Amino acid sequence: VSMVFLSSSFKWLLAGYGVAIGYVSQDLLPRFKAFQGWNSIDFGSGMAKTGAASLEVGNAMFFNVLGLHEGLKMILALGLDHIFQKNLAYREELIEALRGIGKEVIIDPNSRSTIFKVAAEKEDYQKMVARQIQSSQQKETVRLSPHFYNNDEDIQQLVACLEE
Q: Are 13 and 7 in contact (CB under 8 A)?
């Protein structure tokens, strides 16, 4: 089967910025021009540099590569089903708590994603930022995405912040 797979590794795979996972099946590999590293690309044109500059690899983000390795080890040790069930439990707990304080939750009822939105004023989002609650503001909503690395205290802190 011909396949190209690329994945960011920030957040969900527990690694930092600047590292990713990539796979190209053997039958497609000849169609891709290989390069040595990020610094072997001319960012103005998007093309590979020529001559000795084509061998310039730049600096590998070893810290983030190690983070990706350890994150994947943790994910595999816990098991995908365990993580999925934990994520769903956090999502349901958070949705119930938010509705309990009168917040409008916006979610596709057929979605199994833990990502959803809650109606929130700009001031609500600013309070969340001040308390280092990670989310993103989108118009008159805040996008939330609880994950297995959250805990009950995180859920309670978020609800308390939006309840004020």
A: yes
State pLDDT tens for residues 114-158.
899 999 989 999 999 999 999 999 889 999 999 998 999 999 999
Q: Give every CB contact of residue 41 below 8 A, 6+ residues apart in sequence.
A: 35, 47, 48, 49
| Residue 100 CB neighbour total at 10 angstroms | 10
Q: What is the pLDDT of residues 24-61, one digit of tens each?
A: 899 998 887 665 566 777 778 877 788 787 777 777 77
Contacts of 147 (CB under 8 A, 6+ apart): 11, 12, 87, 90, 114
Closest to 149 measured CA to CA, from 10, 49, 11: 11
Q: Write down the H helix ranges in 79-146.
A: 80-100, 122-130
